[in-house]
């Protein structure tokens, strides 16, 4: 982001563009917004409906004379919508393009059959794994190890789901224990779990899952499916274990009291002041801004992922800056 800031200050590529920015407003997000201001954009900043905005961040925006408007009041015509969760499209009109940050928002935009502008998704990218896999995985690991009353070194860990988030959680816990089992219902992912050196259990086999849960010290859900544990398994196999939810939904469900789950069933990494470290947010924030160029350079209308060359370039730059090899990243996701 610092590189982008310097480039934008020198070139002002979006001078005169009217842009509305709907991304969770935290003090971390301010660097992303500063880049757009440096680029010459006429900015309106708002905050998604699913979380509270940072009051100190609003004060900083006011000091910088950048308009903050609550989401329900944002409307009108803009050159670009920089969106999160496809929340801007109902009340805002764009004449140049839309950039979407999340999987949920991407799915909503894909459902719109006709659009008169490019819609660029930075979720459908390899670089998103840096945030969702490594960033969220590290945050979940950091939160659980900080608030657990016991040392988890060498303990038995059961993870539900081997999508981006589950892969990251398994990777970080593998640093302290070899005893990791992953429950998954997808046949291809079950094979992948074994290839990565973990034990697998078919999530469709309730008896096998309950046996794995009974032997576990820590159980983490990362499927994205509400009530998946209560709906499919006998809760007694899970009782008395250290339980944590890494999904936006309550994945343990109605058979469990909030007090039985770390962070009262909320996504456990959100108990942290920094749920995702800036090193993992940096590439996705960079991509969300620079995707404006994708829409300007390729004016084909409708939904698409960020340009592949841009995606690969960001991943390579990030890996070099943080002393990761591409081979190591390929072995994780």
From TrEMBL:
Q: What would be one Pfam family of this protein? A: AdoHcyase_NAD
Cite the SUPFAM superfamilies for this sequence: Formate/glycerate dehydrogenase catalytic domain-like (SSF52283), NAD(P)-binding Rossmann-fold domains (SSF51735)
Q: Where is the S-adenosyl-L-homocysteine hydrolase NAD binding domain?
A: 132-295
SMART domains, alphabetically? Answer: AdoHcyase_NAD
Q: Which domain of life is it from?
A: Bacteria
Decide whether keyword Cell wall biogenesis/degradation is in the record.
no
- Does the record carry NAD as a key word? yes
Cofactor or coenzyme needed: NAD(+)
Entry keyword set = NAD, One-carbon metabolism
The similarity annotation says: Belongs to the adenosylhomocysteinase family.
Give the protein name, as stated in the record: NAD(P)-dependent oxidoreductase
The species this protein belongs to is: Kangiella aquimarina
């Amino acid at each position: 982001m610092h590189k982008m800031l310097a480039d934008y200050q020198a070139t002002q590529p979006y001078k005169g563009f009217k842009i509305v920015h709907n991304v969770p407003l935290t003090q971390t997000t301010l660097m992303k917004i500063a880049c757009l201001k440096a680029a010459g954009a006429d900015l309106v900043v708002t905050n998604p409906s699913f979380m509270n905005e940072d009051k100190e961040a609003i004060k900083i925006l006011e000091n910088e004379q950048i308009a903050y408007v609550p989401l329900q009041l944002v409307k009108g015509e803009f050159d670009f919508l920089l969106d999160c969760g496809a929340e801007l499209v109902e009340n805002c009109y764009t004449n140049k393009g839309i950039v979407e940050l999340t999987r949920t928002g991407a799915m909503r935009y894909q459902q719109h059959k006709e659009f008169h502008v490019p819609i660029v998704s930075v979720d459908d990218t390899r670089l998103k794994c840096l945030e969702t896999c490594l960033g969220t995985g590290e945050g979940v690991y950091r939160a659980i190890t900080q608030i657990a009353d016991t040392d988890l070194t060498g303990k038995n860990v059961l993870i539900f789901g081997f999508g981006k988030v589950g892969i990251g959680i398994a990777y970080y816990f593998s640093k302290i224990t070899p005893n990791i089992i992953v429950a998954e219902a997808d046949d291809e992912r079950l094979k992948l779990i074994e290839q990565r050196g973990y034990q697998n259990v078919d999530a469709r086999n309730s008896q096998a899952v309950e046996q794995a849960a009974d032997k576990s010290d820590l159980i983490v859900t990362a499927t994205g499916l509400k009530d998946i544990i209560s709906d499919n398994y006998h809760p007694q196999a899970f009782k008395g274990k250290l339980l944590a939810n890494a999904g936006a939904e309550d994945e343990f469900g109605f058979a469990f009291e909030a007090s039985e789950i770390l962070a009262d069933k909320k996504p456990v990494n959100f108990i942290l002041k920094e749920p995702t470290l800036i090193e993992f947010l940096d590439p996705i924030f960079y991509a969300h801004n620079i995707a404006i160029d994708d829409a300007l350079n390729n004016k084909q209308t409708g939904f698409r992922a960020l340009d592949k060359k841009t995606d690969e370039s960001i991943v390579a730059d990030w890996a070099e800056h943080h002393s990761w090899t591409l081979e190591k990243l390929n072995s994780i996701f």
